[in-house]
Design goal:
mainly alpha
Length: 253
């Protein structure tokens, strides 16, 4: 089971690399040109400075391939006691869907409050400032953070749901892969057709004081959303090839 847990995490690392390749290629080369029209921040620097890219990549790879597996080893006894990561008998479709829904709800809840806590003045500079080093996010920066933040805001929220539900290991893998895709899109800096809108989290990286969650439910509840802003108007799933910047252009002062 330990091997399965670790292989799942390394598989997550592989998915991270695959998900990021298209965005990294565009950020480093400025190609394909048609993708640039979907940039959220007009002043985002393209191509990305290679030195900055290497700096970010070193820390993200450390978090994925060192911090993550070490966390798994430490959390393994909890997984076993909860019955999570069971490899016997695939769950029913209903059970799998219910576990995934609960896991997503748990991730959103624990991520929102742990993330907002990281913005407390006493914690921000020490733990979270690294992640906000650039106000124009790129997908490769999704887990660009210190080890403490990686554990508290990324890994613990991810495993709470599967542990509470005693989820089958395949459900845990699906939850990991889905969460990784979500955070990649949220940091990519492009509002692409058919994908989840990253306008909210992009706004967070630019101004720091809004949008601490992913789905927007807790942000609406606590008044930390972006309703009334330009990003708020653009914050929807795009079902056409017309960029939201064309539909809702920036007003010239």
């Amino acid at each position: 089971a330990v091997v399965s847990t670790q292989s799942g995490h390394y598989g997550r690392g592989g998915c991270y690399l695959v998900y990021n390749l298209p965005f990294v290629y565009c950020d480093l080369t400025g190609k394909p040109g048609w993708l640039l029209k979907y940039k959220i921040q007009d002043d985002k620097v393209i191509p990305m400075n290679p030195k900055d890219f290497v700096k970010v990549l070193k820390i993200t790879l450390r978090n994925i391939f060192i911090v993550g597996p070490f966390f798994n080893l430490c959390a393994y006894p909890i997984f076993m006691r909860s019955g999570a990561l069971n490899k016997q008998n695939l769950p029913s479709f209903e059970k799998a869907v219910f576990d995934i829904v609960v896991s997503n709800f748990c991730f959103e809840t624990f991520f929102y409050y742990s993330h907002r806590l990281m913005h407390h003045p006493r914690l921000y500079k020490r733990f979270h400032k690294l992640h906000h080093e650039w106000t124009q996010p790129s997908s490769v920066e999704s887990v660009y953070c210190c080890p403490t933040e990686m554990v508290v805001s990324n890994l613990i929220p991810l495993v709470i749901g599967p542990i509470l539900m005693g989820s089958h290991i395949t459900v845990f893998w699906v939850t990991m892969v889905n969460t990784l895709l979500m955070t990649t899109i949220q940091h990519c800096g492009y509002h692409l057709p058919f994908f989840e809108s990253p306008e909210g989290h992009d706004y967070h990286h630019k101004y720091f004081n809004r949008v601490y969650g992913i789905w927007g439910i807790l942000d609406s509840l606590h008044g930390t959303g972006i309703k009334g802003t330009l990003n708020g108007k653009r914050h929807y799933r795009l079902f056409s090839t017309t960029p939201v910047s064309v539909t809702y252009p920036k007003k010239v002062k």
